[in-house]
Amino acid sequence: MQEAVTVNPAVRVRRVKAADLPHVIALDTRVTKIAKAEYWNGIFSRYGKQRSDERFFLIAEGRVGQSAASFMGFIIGEIRAWEFGSSPCGWVFALSVEPKMRLHGIGSALLEAISAEFRKAGVSKMRTMVAREAHLPMLFFRSEGMMAGPYIQLEKELD
Ligand SMILES: CC(C)(COP(=O)(O)OP(=O)(O)OC[C@H]1O[C@@H](n2cnc3c(N)ncnc32)[C@H](O)[C@@H]1OP(=O)(O)O)[C@@H](O)C(=O)NCCC(=O)NCCS
């Protein structure tokens, strides 16, 4: 894959390796306060090892200030087609950056890298979902040019 060096030249984006998984699990646990190692192991099997032309589990590494790190954050997404009547598009469903390394362009580099993968795979649109009260991801995605799309999510409590 092409490395995303346009946003922050000190940040490189690469495919996930098995050695990254403990870092992914630790970061997600710290951020969400919910430990879910089994979930992440399953995600790694499905998105880190299979169908790499349409599934992307990417890791940022590099340097922020004086500190170099082989793991700074991750993004995961895939190309999905014809669900809900939608033509093929890229979905981003997970993105997280180490809290101490935020606001240095790492999130942007990850989104740029997965956008490049989506374009290479032939799609011209990218989507994600953000909880209404989640201001930080909303600020981030809006700053990256993402806007409300044409679909409305519906749900109800199941008794
Ligand atoms: C959202 C997140 C991935 C952003 O990562 P990041 O590396 O800090 O983002 P960047 O440095 O690339 O920021 C890009 C732009 O996003 C916006 N942004 C990011 N963090 C922001 C903040 N705390 N306040 C305001 N704007 C912010 C800014 O416009 C920023 O550009 P600028 O620095 O030139 O002003 C990171 O904050 C994070 O991991 N949050 C927790 C997990 C999460 O919310 N994940 C997304 C949903 S799955």
Tell me what the structure shows.
The chain is an alpha+beta fold and 159 residues long. The protein has a single domain (11-143), classed as Gcn5-related N-acetyltransferase (GNAT) (Aminopeptidase). 30% of the residues lie in helices and 25% in strands. It contains 4 helices and 5 strands. The chain has helices at 21-32, 37-48, 106-120, 135-143, and strands spanning 11-15, 55-64, 67-80, 89-97, 126-127. A 5-stranded mixed beta sheet has the order 1-2-3-4-5. A hairpin with a 2-residue loop joins β2 (55-64) and β3. The radius of gyration is 16 Å and the shape is globular. It starts with 10 loop residues before the first strand and ends in a 16-residue tail after the last helix. Bound molecules: coenzyme A (COA). Coenzyme A is lined by residues 31, 94-97, 102-108, 136-137, 139-140, 143.
Tell me the name of the CATH class: Alpha Beta
Q: Which percent range fits the helix content? A: 25-40%
Q: Helical stretch count? A: 4
Say which molecules are bound, naming each kind only once: coenzyme A
Mean pLDDT: 93
Strand order, sheet with most strands: 1-2-3-4-5
Q: SSE order, as H and E?
A: EHHEEEHEH
CATH fold group? Aminopeptidase
